[in-house]
Amino acid sequence: MTIYLALLRAINLAGHKPVAMADLRELLTKLGFTDVRSALQSGNLVFRSKARSTSQIERLLESDAEKRLALQTDFFVRTAEQWKEVIANNPFRQEAERDPSHLVAFFLKDAPDPKDVAAAPSFSTVFQLRPVVRVPSFLSMSLLVRRDRPMPFGYTM
Hints:
By secondary structure, the protein is of the alpha+beta class. 36% of the residues lie in helices and 22% in strands. It has 2 domains: 2-82, SP0830-like domains (Alpha-Beta Plaits); 90-156, no CATH class. The strands form 3 sheets. It has a 4-stranded antiparallel beta sheet. It has a two-stranded antiparallel ribbon with strand order 5-7.
């Protein structure tokens, strides 16, 4: 059995897209996933399943969450091995040890179009390297999450 981690995009944030973790755990269990666990009210889930593609699991979870929970959001699913690779390939190891609260990993739904990456200068060098960035003191001040200029591709962090 493969261990998977799922991140849900923008749920339970100041009343936005509220969903109970018990409901999410029950949904995954009904879909045949095992050892389903959640982290706080974050929408982060860990579970086991027979090996299958992460994109296949994402589509299944997105579809069934909308049908059964009236929750329309993106799921970003990665294997435990893929998470280990992100950590092992972190280009900011010293910053991670010195100031881990300002280190963020971004996960994309699909590979971004090169034109979109070029149009988003704060991302351009990062995604050519690794999906880990260092942000200013307050993430809301970062160009990465500005609401007036959203990124042209789906991501979560």
